[in-house]
Amino acid sequence: MLKKLLLGAIALSLTNCLVLNPLGATIDREKGSVAAGRITDAAIQTDLVNSTLLAGRASISILSLLAGDIANIESDKYYVKADVDKCVDEITGFKGFVLGSLITNIISCQDLKSDGYVTGDPFPSL
User: Fold this and answer.
1) What tens digit of pLDDT does each residue of 84-113 get?
2) Kindly report the CA angle at 38 between 110 and 105, in degrees rounded to 5?
3) Domain regions of the chain by residue span
4) DSSP letter string, 29-40
5) How far apart are CA 79 and CA 32, in angstroms?
């Protein structure tokens, strides 16, 4: 009886991951459109602060509006929330203010990979 219960629990947890990860329904995943929006917002915020401190007036570059595309975020895929948080923190942090949002985006956000069993790693996209 205990063996059946244990096997049932393992099967349930595996099917839970197989279903919920690709759908983005787990807590630690974030849809690409949301991740791209957060990265773009961080780049705009960094540009506004930098331009205000350096030039005395607020302005943003067109590249800040394309920050999600520069980070190669695909809106229909899902990404690990902790990786996106790290990217956003680096853009809005000290590195972002010293190097600028574009260079920080290129350095820090290029390693974001899609996550899930159907839509990305560890298996190829369908």
Assistant:
1) 999 999 999 999 999 988 998 898 888 888
2) 30
3) 28-108
4) EEEHHHHHHHHH
5) 6
pTM over 0.85: no
- Please tell me whether residue 114 adopts helix, strand or coil conformation: strand
Other CB atoms within a 10 A radius of the CB of residue 39 amount to: 26
Tens digit of pLDDT for each residue in 6-53? 666 666 565 555 555 555 455 688 889 999 999 999 999 999 999 999
Neighbouring C-beta atoms of residue 86, cutoff 10 Å: 16
Looking at residue 121, what DSSP letter applies?
B
CA atoms within 13 A on the CB side of 117: 11
Residue 110: C-alpha distances to residues 31, 34, 47 (Å)? 17, 17, 19
Angle at 83 between CA 63 and CA 54, to 5 degrees: 35
Query: Comparing C-alpha atoms, which of 15, 123, 108, 41 is closest to residue 77?
Result: 123
Of residues 30, 45, 42, the one with CA closest to residue 108: 42
